[in-house]
């Protein structure tokens, strides 16, 4: 086992092992001629974390009724060490989970072409079904509940686990059981395809260009820039940038997207990291437009969405419409490990250009419009969008 990993987790494992002697029912000490006493496995007194973890592994390997593998010991010890931080965003990715994360950030993967959420019963629900994908061709609709995948069903799902079962190699098949209001459950078998996540959904509302950004990944800024160019070619006089339900993503992507609208060297975000002077990230490349803007946000606009919204609001570059954002003013770093996995943990907090705190506060809109999220499905009932267009046209 890598010595660095052992040092990271040994103290936690020792604490758990020690407390185990006082709980859990009847315990047996080693008897002569049956099993060696625990003490005989310990050759010397030590406080070295690596040595202690070796002792724990030795005891588990010789005394546990059902010994665990080195991989299992290491994985669970790393997870326990991260839990000790009290950091709600700290998580351990095994090698496959880390690979999936990298695919998400690249904006491309093999799957069926839907975004997912969980309903109140812990079951996966189709949120958005993208055009030109296997899901769209099979007739899957927004609001469909997936009650099983590949024959596996659970009372409550971990969404990441469900996604892993849906994704797979290009050209392979996956069967989903669907529950839809007013219909009996039915199954569909889909062939996995290369899914390029459409970062943007665009539309012209008269002389206003509307672009909805779904996430912040490596290609988000280029997609938004292309949308702006397309709008301008159609005579757009202003834009609505919709960041509702956008959970964030890459910090670098938030800076790139903001740079499309804020002049060169303007401060985008201030980052406070442990043991370092405050870092200031600035706009680069030059703004591609100075036309009026409105940004739409809701309670699920988080992280990178809040960086962009906070910057555009501080500069007076855009009017913010909607409800107060999520309030995730922290930056997570994903740090690779030697086993092919990675660990994510909070490494910094960020502030807006005017040093306003976002964490646990959120970005407060200039124009507050509360709305049931389900009304977004139809522009005719989307009162937040209607107000955004009204505010923008008053600027024009």
Summary tags:
Pdz3 Domain; five-stranded antiparallel beta sheet; six-stranded mixed beta sheet; alpha+beta; 396 residues; 2-enoyl-CoA Hydratase, Chain A, domain 1; 3 domains
Protein architecture, described:
This protein is an alpha+beta fold. It folds into three domains: 82 residues, no CATH class; 89 residues, Pdz3 Domain (Roll), CATH 2.30.42.10; 196 residues, 2-enoyl-CoA Hydratase, Chain A, domain 1. The strands form five sheets. The chain has a six-stranded mixed β-sheet, with helices on both faces. Strands 1, 12, 13, 16 and 17 form a five-stranded antiparallel β-sheet that branches. Strands 5-6-7 form a three-stranded antiparallel β-sheet, with helices on one face. The longest helix is centred in the first third of the chain and has 17 residues. It starts with a helix and ends with a helix.
Short structural description:
With 396 residues, the chain is α+β, with helices and mostly antiparallel strands.
Helix content: 25-40%
Unreliable stretches: 1-36
Largest sheet: 6 strands, mixed
Distance between the termini: 64 Å
Record the SSE blueprint.
Layout: H1 3-19, H2 49-63, H3 70-83, E1 91-93, H4 95-106, E2 108-111, E3 114-118, E4 124-129, H5 134-137, E5 145-149, H6 159-166, E6 173-179, E7 186-191, E8 193-196, E9 200-205, E10 208-213, H7 220-233, E11 238-242, H8 251-259, E12 267-273, E13 279-282, E14 293-297, H9 304-314, E15 319-322, E16 330-336, E17 342-351, E18 367-368, H10 383-395
Parallel strand pairs: 10-11, 11-14, 14-15, 15-18
Antiparallel strand pairs: 1-17, 2-8, 3-4, 5-6, 6-7, 9-10, 12-13, 12-17, 16-17
């Amino acid at each position: 086992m890598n010595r660095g990993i052992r040092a990271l987790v040994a103290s936690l494992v020792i604490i758990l092992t020690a407390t185990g002697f006082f709980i859990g029912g009847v315990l047996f000490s080693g008897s002569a001629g049956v099993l060696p006493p625990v003490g005989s496995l310990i050759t010397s007194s030590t406080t070295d974390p690596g040595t202690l973890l070796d002792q724990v592994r030795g005891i588990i390997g010789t005394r546990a009724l059902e010994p665990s593998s080195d991989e299992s010991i290491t994985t669970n010890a790393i997870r326990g060490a991260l839990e000790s931080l009290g950091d709600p965003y700290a998580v351990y990715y095994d090698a496959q989970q880390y690979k999936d994360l990298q695919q998400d950030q690249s904006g491309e993967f093999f799957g069926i072409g839907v975004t997912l959420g969980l309903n109140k019963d812990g079951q996966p629900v189709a949120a958005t079904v993208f055009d030109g994908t296997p899901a769209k061709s099979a007739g899957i609709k927004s609001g469909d509940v997936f009650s099983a995948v590949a024959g596996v069903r659970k009372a409550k799902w971990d969404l990441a686990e469900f996604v892993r079962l849906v994704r797979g190699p290009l050209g392979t098949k996956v069967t989903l059981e669907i529950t839809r209001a007013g219909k009996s459950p039915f199954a569909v078998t889909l062939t996995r395809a290369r899914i390029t996540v459409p970062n943007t959904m665009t539309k012209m509302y008269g002389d206003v260009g509307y672009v909805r950004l779904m996430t912040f990944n490596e290609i988000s800024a280029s997609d938004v820039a292309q949308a702006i160019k397309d709008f301008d070619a159609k005579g757009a006089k202003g834009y609505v940038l919709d960041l509702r339900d956008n959970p964030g993503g890459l910090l670098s992507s938030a800076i790139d997207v903001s740079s499309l609208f804020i002049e060169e060297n303007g401060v985008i975000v201030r980052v406070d990291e442990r043991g370092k002077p405050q870092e200031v990230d600035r706009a680069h490349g030059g703004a591609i437009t100075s036309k009026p803007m409105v940004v739409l946000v809701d309670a699920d606009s988080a992280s990178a969405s809040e960086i962009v919204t906070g910057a555009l609001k501080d500069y007076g570059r855009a009017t913010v419409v909607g409800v107060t954002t999520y309030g995730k003013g922290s930056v997570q770093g994903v740090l690779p490990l030697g086993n092919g996995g990675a660990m994510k943990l909070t490494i910094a907090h960020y502030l807006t250009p005017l040093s306003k705190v976002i964490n646990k506060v959120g970005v407060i809109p200039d124009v507050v419009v509360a709305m049931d999220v389900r009304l977004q499905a139809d522009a005719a009932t989307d009162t937040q969008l209607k107000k955004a267009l009204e505010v923008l046209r008053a600027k024009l």
